[in-house]
Amino acid sequence: MKFVDELVIDVESGKGGDGMVAFRREKFVPFGGPSGGDGGRGGDVVLVATRDLNTLFELGFQRLYEGEPGQKGMAKDMEGAGGRDCLVKVPVGTLVFREDTGELVCDLAEAGARYVVARGGRGGKGNARFATSVRRAPRIAEKGEPGERFRLRLELKLLADVGLVGLPNAGKSTLLAAVSNARPKVADYPFTTLVPHLGIVKREGRRAFCMADLPGLIEGAHAGTGLGIQFLKHIERTRLLLHLVDLGTQDRAEARRAFQTILAELQEYDPALLAKPMIVAVTKMDLPDARENWPAFRTWLKRQGCEAVAISAATRDGLGPLLDLVATTLDRTPAPAPEPVSDARPAGRVFEYLAPFELVRVGPGQWQANGREIERLVAMTDFTSDEAVLRFKRKVQKMGFLDELARQQADGEDIVSIGEMEFQVREFAL
Question: What whole-number distance in Å separates Cα of residue 308 and Cα of residue 314?
Fold first, then answer.
């Protein structure tokens, strides 16, 4: 399966069902009255975090995720059925952003976490809801509220306890294959891993932990060189960095430069990465040169304030002490906090207008009215019904729309666009 950690999708919740105009007609029941039921509510689009996925690849086969529309209201005061929600499974660690504004909508950092990214439209009211003591036979019903549609950018940051970092060919894939059930590509010729791999490491008497083999960084990765910039973000979610340094095919001077190169790249990308606990694993100790250079290199690392362990993943020498040290360090290291989400956005909604409307002149004799409340009113009004049109005029007058038109000196022949409808200013008058 191809590894995909960024994806843009469209989501659209279901439209609410239309209300119904109906009257009760039963034998021996005079003056039955209105009996039109309300429309059903549209289905939501809900993102659900699951550990069954570790890539966004499968979501790319479908770019529009839609909630089911609600059904129309029925006679005898029966409400239409609500639409089914659209559940979209995403990997744990997925961040959701608005594509147009860049706003962080939610951080699905725990398995089972759910978030409604598009709420289904409300069902329209049937004519039974408009009956009063003086209005016995209303012939008015609302249309269903339209659903919400958004373009979202999904960004996956792997949630691993341990992140393996190091230059290409430092032995990260070999180590992961040796200590877990992961099977990354390992060969006896130089190459770099192209995608991250995850493996679960289990030690007897210890809590299991997740280890991620991240593609090899090179100098300049923070600025876009090589593949590093694509995967540095995954390091942000790890609790512990396991820094692998190849001492078998490099001399001590080259190993020092390799070690400092990785630290410099982490510093340039995000200085907070260097605040994470770090263990240095010196690899390929089955080679004679590595065993010869190890004492001096260990002394140099101690002067840098780093804890180091010598290992050979090929012969499995030193893996036990290394994993014990990793497990002990994890036990005293808290999990990273989820990404902060803006408190200004109303809970459960991706976006909300703050005012009922905003009137803007877009040209000579042309006006545009924006706002959730007034756009919803237009969308839910049945303009083929005289009673519905009269109700619409009363509502726009009550919200101060006519006063705003007068204040901005709109002419009676001017055109006002609201949603998908256009009106002449004089048409709003009662």
Answer: 18
